[in-house]
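so my prof wants the structure for this chain in the tokens format not the other one, which i didnt know existed until like an hour ago. anyway here's the sequence
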Amino acid sequence: MTAHHITFTREEDGIGILTIDRPDKRGAMTYAMLARFIEAVREAGADDTVRVLIVTGSGGSFCAGTDLSDLSTIPGETRGVRGEAHQGDVWWPLVSCPKPVIGAIDGYAVGMGAEFSSQCDVRIITPRTRFAWNFAHRGLVPDTGAGSWLLPRLIGPSRALRLLYSGSFLEAEEALAIGYANAVAEPETLMDAARAEARRYLASSPFSIRRMKELVWKGLERDVAGHMQAHVTALSACFKSADHKEGVAAFLEKRPAKFTGS
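here's what i got, hopefully its the right format
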């Protein structure tokens, strides 16, 4: 059993930390770990005490992909995909999470690890971070669908296809230059940088953040008319929310807002 290599902790200030903790295998994912990872993201999404989720690895790696020794226990011709096409929280759990998700990514983020990095809202990396979508080397397409749908929208189709066709590494310097990474920190200060980023969001309304995240990600698949309909619905809900009333009151009273997410 390897599910214990996925740990989820809650910090007092509303930050949740999800760690892929298998340093001896560079965070390589087994089926049991993946199931626990998805379950932990769901827990974070449903927990009102968690306002921001940080996803990270341990021992100088994020996730080196699927553990091929685990994968090889099931013949390819009988190996099923992990869920039905409509099960978004199974394929893209970090996108489906209603909270902001920050990837604190050190070292290797390869295969499934690269896919998870694409699902984060924000990526903070170190100078030794290396991404690779090496699925073509295994006779596969990107295993969560993020590399073939999210990645081109994040960095452009040509850059994405070059990475997918070659399976080559995207190094930290280039990742920052093309906007795939948002910031670079040294390995020893990575989590401090991720927590500092998370605290920037803690001053904002959870009610509005949840709707903004959904509008942005869903907006990538809607036309303008569909997006504006969703926008009007979200804005109307915000006007009626307790968080909006609190935000206005806090501004007028010149004090920090105390949002409840309702």
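also thought this was worth mentioning. Residues 102 and 122 are 5 Å apart (CA to CA).
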